[in-house]
Request: fold
Amino acid sequence: MAKKSKEAPPISLDAWEQAWQRHWKKAGFTSYELHLPDSAAVNRERNFLMERRSAERERARLRRITAEFERGFKRLGKLGPAVTVFGSARFKPGHEYYELAREVGRELALAGLTTITGGGPGAMEAANRGAHEVGGPSYGLNILLPHEQEPNPYVDESVEFQYFFVRKVMLVKYSCAYIVVPGGLGTLDELYEAATLIQCGKIGPFPLVLVGREFWDGMRDFLLHMVEQGVFDAQEIGFARIVDSPAEAVEMVVRSLPPMVREQLKPLAR
Reply:
């Protein structure tokens, strides 16, 4: 059994909150571009990661990847300030977490922000639906999977991707924040990738807000345990805010925007 680091005393919940406050007080405004520049297929990413091919076939694959990046840049390059919402594909309408994501999408739209999701069912559908129901813009970045994930019916536009890594680049590049509702491994993958990019200074300041305090308590406890084990510093736990209220999450995102971007928002009437 690993021994606890003598250098890292246990961190209380109050200390977690204080670390978040210190992080964002020091971080300043989000760096966000105000004016952005104008079957076999579903197995391509697996093949890319699992197979070694001839140089000629790898060049052909690189052309497909480049084309997918170019298509994403073209389709998403004119979005205004947007927020990506992550969450499980498994929640059905009426589930408390489905309705939580739906309220997040609604609040984003009312604040004048575009909602982006992975384009599928569950929490993704719910966030797109919440935005759509109040007349806000709603986009889905759908991934082609062996079980044929279909775009949900609440997106104004669906952009399809074959490669997860291309899609994840787009979800970061065209967002000024992430809001994460309860989800599984895919959600955690996206959450931790964003956290790693923030930790390494590759993006940010970049609000990463987790909605659903009871659900995320276990993850927070584990991260505090990791601090005690010395695998990262206590000062680095300020990457995410955990809240219960979608309105509070969206308010935090809006506050993080540079004034010149915030002035461009066109909030909807409640």
User: Anything to note?
Assistant: Residues 1-8, 34-38 have pLDDT under 50 and may be disordered. Residues 13-262 form a domain with the Rossmann fold fold (CATH 3.40.50.450). Residues 55-76 form the longest helix (22 residues).
